[in-house]
What does this fold into?
Amino acid sequence: MGDLKLVRKFAVEDGFFGRYEKLVKDVVLPYQERALNDQIEGAEKSHCIENFRMAAQKLKSGRCEGTFYGMVFQDSDVAKWLEGAAYSLAQNPDAALEARCDKIIDLIGEAQQEDGYLNTYFTVKDPDRRWSNLQEAHELYCAGHMIEAAVAYAECTGKSRFLEIMCGMADHIYRRFVEEGAEGYPGHPEIELALMRLYRSTSVERYKELAMHFINVRGVDSDYYCKEKEKRNWIVWGSDPEDKEYTQSHAPVREQKKATGHAVRAVYLYTGMADAAMETGDEELSKACKTLWDDITQHRMYVTGGIGSAYEGEAFTKDDHLPNDTAYAETCAAIGLIFFSNKMLYLERNGKYADVMERALYNGVLAGMQLDGTKFFYVNPLEVLPGISGEAKTHKHALPVRPKWFACACCPPNVARLLASVAEYAWHVVSDTLFSNLFIAGTLDLTDSLGGKVSLKTSYPYDNKMEYHFEPQEGAMSMTLAIRIPAWSEETKISVNGEAADCEIREGYAYLSGDFGTDDVVTVELDLSVRRVYTSNRVSANTGRAAVQRGPLIYCAEGVDNENDILSLSLKKDGEVTVSEYLPKKLCGIQELYAQGYRETVNEALYSFEAPKAEPCQITLVPYYTWGNRGLNQMRVWIPEKNKI
Amino acid sequence: MGDLKLVRKFAVEDGFFGRYEKLVKDVVLPYQERALNDQIEGAEKSHCIENFRMAAQKLKSGRCEGTFYGMVFQDSDVAKWLEGAAYSLAQNPDAALEARCDKIIDLIGEAQQEDGYLNTYFTVKDPDRRWSNLQEAHELYCAGHMIEAAVAYAECTGKSRFLEIMCGMADHIYRRFVEEGAEGYPGHPEIELALMRLYRSTSVERYKELAMHFINVRGVDSDYYCKEKEKRNWIVWGSDPEDKEYTQSHAPVREQKKATGHAVRAVYLYTGMADAAMETGDEELSKACKTLWDDITQHRMYVTGGIGSAYEGEAFTKDDHLPNDTAYAETCAAIGLIFFSNKMLYLERNGKYADVMERALYNGVLAGMQLDGTKFFYVNPLEVLPGISGEAKTHKHALPVRPKWFACACCPPNVARLLASVAEYAWHVVSDTLFSNLFIAGTLDLTDSLGGKVSLKTSYPYDNKMEYHFEPQEGAMSMTLAIRIPAWSEETKISVNGEAADCEIREGYAYLSGDFGTDDVVTVELDLSVRRVYTSNRVSANTGRAAVQRGPLIYCAEGVDNENDILSLSLKKDGEVTVSEYLPKKLCGIQELYAQGYRETVNEALYSFEAPKAEPCQITLVPYYTWGNRGLNQMRVWIPEKNKI
It folds into this structure.
């Protein structure tokens, strides 16, 4: 896999993701930059940049003015922003933005201690306690995000300063945990996947070794956090070290069979594991990743790609427990599932992994952001009931409308960095094969690898047709184009220059090999028929119910389109569902669905012996990612289905 | 209402409640007596009696050995046990038990301070803090339970010692809160209803005045608990005084419209309010009670009579939020709903109040106890899924099997005292009218009021026929017999000596007036047809589902009767449901139901586009109160309903 090339040179064009790219550049990143600099009136203070300034001052003069402010992992906010900015710069050069980034990077460099150590919380506030609370203090987590940002910044701008800084920190960690044999492993995984990126970008073996170290020691001494807690005399939150499943430390990772604990931590860990398995060929690790991925996607994932059913600990619960209204389904966790699935796809080229990436991206992740890019959900329920959602003690987390950005800065920059780097997931280049996993319109510069450019023209997901065009530097591009055939597309037509293509279909991909020139067009027509989705009867919440899907989009009913009462609605079994024309003005451009259904009268009495009367009706459905953009409102994904009335 | 007579002289006979009465006498009370005395190996220590001994010793000698142990409200366990024992003694004289009770009562007397104050926590452990933490320390709650026990003991045994002790404590409270004008009201209501009982038993006006005081001041200064917390420098649990709805102190009680907060506290408060409203004719208070009762029963009550949807705070949540699998529905709260409804029935003679009492008694309360009387549920969910229930972080409270009695002693003795005094709810005597609210077989001695005995012969709820017989002391009993006609009984036949009765039906009661002699028999035949129950579509959890009811019994499907997979079952709409013969050996004697339904194949895939295939099947249903008596097992009350397959 040494020839794996990451996709950085991709110009997203108009269309579905073009709008998001613009939002990230024009709205999300600038807003967040001001937030990090505490320039937004009325917003929670970030103090991120100020923390770095204080650390730099302290290192220079032995003391600093003011006090550290924010979460113990506050540094990671700067990191995620820099990473998002890097991706954006790769696509949209912006000298002023780059200069500001460089300035922050210089500051980061000044905040680094002589031994390479870099963390403002411990440098400014608690120098004697560094490395003493791996379970809670998230030093390795912050280092991981800083490393990811440094790699991205180097890859996107060609500048190495940030990378050098973070190599210094990685070396520091290597010395401590490998050379000096310090015990322990991160309470919040992230460093593993970051070190794999660092290794891939620098080819320095010890970074891979260090990643493998943290993967290998995890859960081997499953009492580590208990012992650590006994030794230290301070806490961050007072997390229980005995809850070992919560920290994915209940068993060595190769023996873990169920996705447990904090969902984001889990999928970040599994991402690192899958990347390491790919890079090292470690079969046992690879098998563990497959087992965990199957457990998630067959037992612990919402139809939206959301994961982590419980607010309590933002965590996985048990197999087949997928409540709709109390779902946590954190935006970051859906993003992490994309990371994990993306690595699995490298490990095993099977369309099922890309199917899950697409499911999470178009539903669980996009729903996390208001259509105008200014508000965010951390929690993404599949059913919302005003008066209960966000209000009942059991539903405080499940807000019915997106709050104003910026109380805690975890999901928003994660959405930004994902959307700004969506090409990495959409396209894989492995040897002479270009894998088209997700269908994002734009032009891919493969001059360095396949000798030309490939562009995809499509209005997907609101059009079923996709055209691949080629711009060889000279002559033709001799390559294999491997196009994912989504599992939901029952009949897919692939043609080359208007003729049915002679291609091999294998594990969810259509492989077309040939010499592709300027005049060649590969056309794919997916089957965007509306489909009903049924959940296994193992899942209690959805028995007797169906969801509606078209292409990658899960649809939902909102009160505003349905007489403000969606609880009285049921879908007609085998009833027709018609698709509206494209409505460019509605919800930033969607196609609605109109399903044949029934509307019941509402019994005023809480309980009665009379079955409610039902009348045929039409149910209007909108894409899940657009819900909650029209005020306080009921919403439901899983709708009871009836044969007749 | 001064002529209201409480029903104490009732001999429960064989039949449904006869079995329970025997259980309480032979199993529940003896077991609990041993528990209170710390004589059960392996059980949680109670230390209750020991706490009283220590308090007595300290008062006698100025010091005591050992330390107080248990909850701050540990005294209430002794109280509830004594109350249950009193009721049992009234029906089953037992000189040895009575002597042991007297001994405990003597000890209680010795633990009382000179000023009447009685509470072992504060006497033994924290004498300087008494009355400083009304929100959490539950002194008034304990006093309330002790008063209830004292009243019951006096009424059932004719002995006044305990009553004198508790009048001393009530007088102490009166001096403090009325005469001296101390601020505040109880964090856990109970004293109000207890004082009303004390007033009714003693006719001492100041006890009614004191009850009214606590009712009247509650929520008027809604910041009281905040101020109290600022003044004191200690906590019990650290409860938040700002959560005013939780403590029913957000508004004066007459202005409260929604049942909020801790469910048991709420219904205990409302019970006291309703009793006071009845006794004083306070129209405004009466109206508030009706509003609150309607809110509970029309928006916040499970079909089993369980109330309090959330584990968090054992609390009410919001209107129409009734999740099945995460329900709290504490056994004590269902008992409290019976208390409240019983008082409402005195306030307004309407069968709906008795309907709710019956619903809660036969379902939400009885389910709280294992059929053999040795294990108890605090939490009574309406759906149980092994692997999730009791295991997922969100379901730790919703245990799938009853735990071994005695970790915390709140529900078990409450069940015992309710079952031992069930006649008080079954029968009301008001002037010359005998109200038959619940149908408990047995003989009622009304010699003092109506000049004879009335007995009810029935195998209800497994038989539809009830016979009322009369044993006048001489001649005939000139009276009105008012028999409740349950709302679920579509056709009810009432006859006197075989002839259709000429009776007035009014607000759910049939009134038969006449002179009833030894040869007279009033026969009631209820309609025990199986009924489907539907929830208002305002309740999300039950849309598309039905429950099955026969008589007062809500039925449920358990895995053990249904191939260990009840999630694949649906009821056939308008399908037949047949009733088994009485099965004396199954679950201590039940009638099963066999419903026409469908069984779907289980899709292995979590999500699929294929609707599951269904085949007709027979669904076996058992009464909800019997669930969980056959090991770890699925259970579901609300089952999807289908028109056809």
The first strand of chain B starts at residue 4 and ends at 5. Chain B touches chain A through 67 residues (CB under 8 Å). Chain B is about 35% helix and 20% strand.
